[in-house]
Design a protein that fits this description.
It contains 17 helices and 19 strands. It is of the alpha/beta class and 537 residues long. The strands form four sheets. It has an eight-stranded parallel beta sheet with strand order 9-8-7-3-2-1-11-10. A six-stranded antiparallel beta sheet has the order 12-13-14-19-16-17. A three-stranded antiparallel beta sheet has the order 4-6-5, with no helix packed on it. Helix 6 packs parallel to helix 7 and helix 12 runs parallel beside helix 16. 50% of the residues are buried. Bound molecules: 1-deoxynojirimycin. 1-deoxynojirimycin binds next to loops.
C-alpha cells in the first residue's frame, strides 16, 4: 500500500518561515533570503517538503511586509531578485517546494496604485480602492471596524472621502469588484508562477470582498468586552459569498500550471471553512484549519474539534492542521513546554497536511518582549490588550545555537526582536547533538509519517480512551499497518484499557523516544505528558 497517487501537498508537510526572523546574513539584525538559503539543509533534514515564506516583497513594513508596495519585487532588506532565484533553485535542488504569501486584499498606502488613487477623485485608479463619502455629519460611512483597532475608515482631507482598511490605515483595501484590480493581481501571480514557485498562501482570502451596500455590522451579543473588534458580527466585511468567485478564479489560474497549490488563510468555523474547497473542489486545495490554535489545549476539546472537522470534510477535500503561525502565540507556550512533544505528535499524526511554524521543531516558546521592544502595530495601538493581540512574542529569532544572538545574527548586532531567553539550551545545535531531543523526535515523527501510509491517507476514528486527559485515535488504511495514537494532555499518569481497539500493539515512537516494545492494550501505561504512536499487531 502506498500513497503514490497523492499530490505533494497531500503527502508532505509545510514549514512556515517568517523571513525577518529566520537567519540574518548581512548584519542588519533582520533575517533575509540568503539567510534562508543558508538554512535549507536544516529544513530538508527535517523531512518536510514545502517552505512557505511570509511576505518578502517591497514594503514600508508598517505591518512587517503585509503592506506590499510592489507585488513583483523583493524588498532590499531581504535581498535581491537574484537572491530569490537562487533560493528557489537551491530549494528545488533539495526537493523542497516553495510557496509565497500573496497579500491581495490590501496594499501599502505607499503603493504607487494608492498614491494615484488618492491623488484625485477622477484618477483612473480611484476605483481600485474602496472610497466612500462621509456621513452628513462628516463621520465614517458606517460602523465597520479595523481588526487592529479603531474604525476601518480613514478620512482623506485632500479628496474629501474616506478609504477603507480592514487592518492598519497604512493598508488600504483594494476594490476587488474592479476587473482591472483582479487582472493586475492575477498577472502578479503569473509572474511568480512563471518563475517556478509552487503555489500561494493567500492572505485573508475571506475578506477580499465587502458588502457593496456598506451596511452597518450588527452588535455581537456575545462580546466578552475585551477586544473592541469583536463587539460586532462581521457579516458584511468577511466571508461574503462573492469571495468564492475570486477563490475560483485564483484556482483556475493555478490550474494553468502543473502541480501547484492554493492555500487560503481562513479563520472560520467548519461549516463555513469547508466552502473554501469550492462546490466542485475548485477553490483552495487547503483552506487553513486553525481551530487547534484557537481552542484551549485539552484532550476532550481537541477530540471534539478533530472529530467535527474530520466529519465535515466534503468528498474530495483534503484536510490540514496548523498549531502555530506568526499571528498566534506559540503552541509550546499555549500548551506549556511539557506538552510541546505531544503537540508535534498530534500535528504529525492527524489526517491532513500539517503546517509547522519555524521553531516548533525545537519546541521554541514565545519570547518575552520588554515594553521598549514592542514592534507589532496592533500591540502599539491597543496597549491594554497587547498581551492578547501582540504578535512579537511568536516572531522572535530562530534559535540556531548558543552563541550571542543564537546564531540568528552575528554577535553584537541588535536583532529586530530580542532572542528568547532560553536560546542557550533550546537551540538547533544543542538538539542536534542529543539523540533524544525534540529536534530528533520531530525528524523521527516525520520519518514515521513517510514510512506508514496510514498516517497520510488512513481513516480517522477516536475511540474513548476512558480518561479525561487522554485523546486517542486510530489511523486505518486497508493493506497498511493500522496505527493507534494515544496522547496524554495532562500531568497525571494513566493506565488505560484500549482493548476495544485491539489486544496488543508495538510502540512505533514515544514522546521521550525512550519506550519501545510490545504493549498490552488492556493495560496501557501512559506517563504524564506522554504520547505514543502504536502499531496494532
Ligand atoms: C493576516 C496575516 O497573517 C497578518 O500577519 C497580517 O497582519 C494581516 N493578514 C494583514 O495583512
Amino acid at each position: 500500500m502506498t500513497n503514490s497517487n497523492l499530490a505533494w501537498w497531500q503527502t508532505g508537510i509545510v514549514y512556515q518561515i517568517y523571513p525577518r526572523s529566520y537567519q540574518d546574513s548581512n548584519g542588519d539584525g533582520i533575517g533575509d533570503l540568503p539567510g534562508i538559503t543558508r538554512r535549507l539543509d536544516h529544513i530538508a533534514r527535517l523531512g518536510v517538503n514545502t517552505v512557505w515564506i511570509s511576505p518578502m516583497y517591497p514594503s514600508p513594513m508598517a505591518d512587517f511586509g503585509y503592506d506590499v508596495s510592489d507585488y513583483c519585487g523583493i524588498n532590499p532588506m531581504f535581498g535581491t531578485m537574484a537572491d530569490f532565484d537562487h533560493l528557489l533553485r537551491e530549494a528545488h535542488a533539495r526537493g523542497l517546494k516553495v510557496i509565497l504569501d500573496l497579500v491581495p486584499s490590501h496594499t501599502s498606502h505607499l503603493h504607487p496604485w494608492f498614491l494615484e488613487s488618492q491623488s484625485h477623485r477622477e484618477n483612473p485608479k480611484r476605483d481600485w480602492y474602496i472610497w466612500h463619502d462621509p456621513k452628513q455629519d462628516g463621520s465614517p460611512p458606517n460602523n465597520w471596524l479595523s481588526v487592529f483597532g479603531g474604525p476601518a475608515w480613514t478620512f482623506d482631507e485632500k479628496t474629501g472621502q474616506y478609504y477603507m482598511h480592514s487592518f492598519l490605515r497604512e493598508q488600504p483595501e483594494l476594490n476587488w469588484r474592479n476587473p482591472q484590480v483582479r487582472a493586475t493581481i492575477y498577472n502578479a501571480m503569473r509572474f511568480w508562477l512563471d518563475k517556478g514557485i509552487d503555489g500561494f498562501r493567500v492572505d485573508v482570502i475571506t475578506r477580499m470582498i465587502k458588502d457593496d451596500q456598506f451596511r452597518d455590522e450588527p452588535r455581537n451579543p456575545n462580546w466578552n468586552g475585551v477586544n473592541p473588534y469583536d463587539s460586532l458580527l462581521h457579516i458584511y466585511t468577511k466571508n461574503i459569498p462573492e469571495v468564492h468567485t475570486i477563490a475560483r478564479e485564483m484556482r483556475a489560474l493555478l490550474e494553468q500550471y502543473p502541480d501547484r497549490v492554493l492555500i487560503g488563510e481562513t479563520y472560520l468555523p467548519n461549516h463555513e471553512l469547508v466552502n473554501y474547497y469550492g462546490a466542485q473542489n475548485d477553490e483552495c486545495h487547503l483552506p487553513f484549519n486553525f481551530q487547534c490554535i484557537l481552542l484551549p489545549w485539552n484532550a476532550q476539546t481537541m477530540r471534539r474539534a478533530v472529530d467535527a472537522y474530520d466529519a465535515s470534510l466534503p468528498p474530495g477535500a483534503w484536510g490540514n492542521w496548523v498549531l502555530g503561525n506568526h499571528d498566534q502565540h506559540r503552541v509550546a507556550t499555549r500548551a506549556g513546554a511539557t506538552q510541546a512533544r505531544v503537540a508535534n505528535m498530534f500535528l504529525l499524526t492527524l489526517r491532513g497536511t500539517p503546517t509547522t511554524y519555524y521553531g516548533e521543531e525545537i519546541g521554541m516558546q514565545d519570547g518575552a518582549i520588554p515594553p521598549e521592544f514592542v514592534q507589532d502595530p496592533p500591540a502599539l495601538k491597543q496597549p491594554s490588550i497587547a498581551h492578547i493581540i501582540g504578535r512579537d512574542p511568536e516572531r522572535t529569532p530562530m534559535q540556531w545555537d548558543d552563541s550571542p544572538n543564537a546564531g540568528f545574527a552575528r554577535a553584537g548586532v541588535r536583532t529586530w526582536l530580542p532572542v528568547a531567553d532560553n536560546y542557550t539550551t533550546c537551540n538547533v545545535a544543542a538538539q542536534e547533538r542529543d539523540p533524544g531531543s525534540m529536534l530528533n523526535f520531530y525528524r523521527a515523527l516525520v520519518q514515521l509519517r513517510k514510512d506508514e501510509p496510514a498516517l497520510i491517507a488512513g481513516a480517522y476514528a477516536s475511540p474513548d480512551a476512558g480518561a479525561e486527559d487522554v485523546f486517542a485515535y486510530t489511523r486505518t488504511l486497508p493493506g497498511a499497518n493500522r496505527l493507534l495514537i494515544v496522547l496524554n494532555f495532562g500531568a497525571h499518569a494513566h493506565t488505560l484499557d484500549l482493548s476495544r481497539v485491539a489486544s496488543r500493539a508495538t510502540i512505533a515512537i514515544a514522546t521521550g523516544m525512550n519506550r519501545t516494545g510490545e504493549v498490552d492494550l488492556a493495560q496501557l501505561d501512559l506517563a504524564p505528558n506522554q504520547g505514543l504512536v502504536l502499531r496494532i499487531v
